[in-house]
From TrEMBL:
Source organism superkingdom: Bacteria
Coiled coil regions, renumbered to chain: none
Name assigned to this protein: Uncharacterized protein involved in outer membrane biogenesis
GO cellular component terms, A-Z: plasma membrane
Domain AsmA positions: 9-132
InterPro entries: AsmA, AsmA-related
Pfam family, any one: AsmA
Biological process (GO), any one: regulation of protein targeting to membrane
Organism: Aminobacter aminovorans (Chelatobacter heintzii)
Length: 625
């Protein structure tokens, strides 16, 4: 027979099994009636400081995790008489402790918010304001930490920080909206992530993904002392943001005190600067910004000023380095500094803040300089080698300025065409409209190289010379500027030649008294002693004041007008023989001219000029020659 001890053991085991079964069976009943709805709401309110409301009956799960699922959960400001939820969620899943539930308490470390909505207040200036609770453990912990920081800002006693256990909060398919008198507008959608903080004095981490301005964004934040940041203290932080338009990261320390300060390494990379600006919507978007851009540097500063040191900048594959200073204490942000590049595309660079040269697609597009009201820019840059379209430059020194309606890009010194070049383009908004100005001074240059770069297909001077161009006019768009421009053009070249003019063939055709295309006599090169051009531009029409080429035996001159509209030509000119004398030991006598006097008219268009012979007495040489 079994011994009494054995029977008692059997009964003890059976009783234990019954007790466990009864306990498991009792948990849902006890939890649902004593804990879940009231106690969870109380605990959530105690932590957040908001009024918590839970609609519906909680759903309790025992296995594999003791979990309570709540529906229609709202968190509301206690002082809000209208009761508009600050946070609401369709469902909240909370992992509970079964033993705590049996004792009438709530102990949970993880909460999962499914399809939550966070409501921010839209301010009058367009910004948003985070909701503020009137109490709660988190608020009290931040206040205690703030007092700790205030007692010794330089070396706060970290052991005095609150050590309450917290846990993790997960959010799935949420959104963030801004609320104003006009209603709600979505800021973030498809928001999914997790905030982990084992205890208030421990390291914390936030990971989140969402959609902002139509683009998927991934954010990661981590800090060994996040509570210090909330309390206005200093703590290390590592942050990264990833999206298709831009990727950015920071690794350093942040001081969230009254004089907030930042010190660390930052990096930003964008495959398209324009797309990044369009996406982030900072209100600063010139017509044709640069393509790809990257910036890596050490940054230090506060809310009023940031210093970007040892900046490594790459613009469209052109690497450079320098130092930048950003100021935020004025009406608009200000950026100043110096950048040095080995190679640089000047048109691309300048297009990031000033409307550059016209193309077929944008010649009639309105030039927008409104961005110059939203940023001040003063940059000095240099480049060992640079390009401006098809023009190659070297040893470039330039400046870029944007301020109060002014957008300007100036090349103060550069080597090009075998000589020196200075150039500028400015757009200045005046009460009567935007005014544009373009200037070019090319000194001691190779005329042939200049003509090739300028796209000149007819009559190109070959030799050393100087070219000056000044244009001013309304800056509504590029066509308006050129059609109404005022200014001047001047060019002087020394001994050399004129490519694209066969003078004997020209004289032969004019002798035939029939008009002909300039292309028909462009197969030669005419040696010259010098070339000079002076023209006055008024309302888009260039009036030739002086256009003269001097050869050893003749003088060729032109006068007339060249309008921009229609690209037509209306010029008259002549070829006059120089008076040549022959000397002997006793006498000096004139020599018969080798070139017969010839007069002609030049018409047609810039791209296809034609020549029509005239009777020589019909025209006379321009005055002053």
């Amino acid at each position: 027979m079994p011994s009494p001890l054995f029977r008692r053991s059997i009964w003890a085991i059976a009783g234990l099994i019954v007790l466990i079964a009864a306990t498991v069976a009792a948990v849902p009943f006890i939890a649902s009636t004593q804990i879940v709805k009231d106690r969870i709401a109380f605990e959530m309110s105690a932590w957040s400081g908001f009024r918590v409301s839970i609609e519906g009956t909680p759903d309790i799960e025992i296995w594999p995790v003791f979990r309570a699922t709540l529906t229609d959960v709202t968190l509301t400001d206690w002082d809000d008489e209208q009761g508009s939820p600050v946070i609401e969620a369709e469902r909240v899943e909370i992992e509970l402790s079964a033993l705590s539930a049996l004792s009438g308490n709530v102990d949970f470390s993880d909460a999962h918010f499914i399809r939550p909505t966070l409501r921010l207040k839209r301010l009058a200036d367009g910004g948003v304001e985070m909701p503020h609770s009137s109490g709660g453990r988190l608020s009290r912990a931040i206040e205690r930490a703030r007092a700790t920081v205030a007692s010794n800002p330089m070396e706060p006693d970290l052991s005095a920080l609150p050590a309450d256990e917290f846990g993790a909060v997960e959010f799935i398919d949420g959104r963030v909206v801004a609320v104003s008198d006009e209603g709600e507008d979505e800021i973030l959608t498809d928001l999914t992530g997790k905030a982990s903080l084992p205890a208030l004095n421990k390291a914390g981490k936030l990971t989140a993904t969402g959609v902002w301005h139509g683009e998927q964004v991934a954010l990661e934040l981590s800090s060994p002392r996040p509570l210090m940041l909330f309390a206005g203290g200093e703590a290390p932080i590592v942050a990264s943001l990833k999206s298709a338009p831009v990727e950015a990261s920071f690794d350093g320390t942040i001081d969230m005190g009254p004089d907030a300060h930042v010190d660390g390494q930052a990096k930003i990379v964008s495959p398209s600067f324009r797309r990044m600006l369009e996406w982030s919507k900072p209100g600063i978007l010139p017509g044709s910004p640069v393509g790809s851009i990257s910036l890596a540097s050490k940054i230090t500063g506060d809310l009023a000023r940031l210093k970007i040191e040892n900046a490594q900048v790459t613009l469209d594959g052109n690497p450079g380095m320098g130092i930048l200073d950003m100021s935020f204490d004025g009406p608009v942000p200000s950026v100043s500094g110096t950048l040095a590049f080995d190679t640089l595309d000047l048109m691309t660079f300048a297009s990031s803040f000033a409307p550059m040269a016209p193309t077929n697609n944008v010649a009639t597009t309105e030039i927008d300089t409104s961005f110059s009201d939203r940023i001040n820019l003063d940059l000095r840059l240099s480049a060992t080698k640079a390009t401006a379209g098809s023009i190659a430059l070297a040893e470039v020194a330039a400046t870029a300025q944007v301020k109060g309606g002014l957008a300007a890009f100036d090349i103060s010194d550069a080597e090009a065409f075998g000589g020196n070049v200075q150039a500028s383009i400015r757009f200045d908004r005046k009460p009567g409209g935007t005014q544009a100005e373009m200037r070019l001074l090319a000194s001691d240059i190779d005329g042939g190289a200049f003509g090739t770069a300028a796209g000149m297909s007819h009559i190109v001077p070959i030799g050393r010379g100087t070219v000056s161009v000044i244009l001013q006019g309304p800056g509504l768009n590029w066509n308006t500027l050129l059609e109404n421009a005022n200014g001047s053009i001047a060019a002087t070249f020394g001994v050399g030649a004129i490519a694209g003019l066969d003078l004997p063939a020209f004289l032969k055709r004019t002798a035939g008294r029939g008009f002909f295309s300039l292309d028909e006599v462009s197969g030669g090169t005419l040696p010259v002693d010098g070339v000079e051009l002076k023209a006055t531009i008024s309302n888009g029409v260039a009036r030739i004041d002086k256009a003269e080429a001097r050869t050893p035996t003749s003088r060729i001159w032109l006068t007339g007008i060249v309008p921009y509209v229609g690209r037509g030509l209306a010029l008259s000119g002549a070829i006059e023989a120089k008076e040549i004398t022959a000397s002997t030991s006793t006498t000096t006598a004139p020599v018969a001219p080798t070139v017969p006097p010839t007069a002609f008219f030049v018409g047609g268009s810039w791209s296809a000029p034609f020549i029509s012979p005239l009777v020589a007495p019909v025209i006379s040489s321009p005055t002053g020659d």
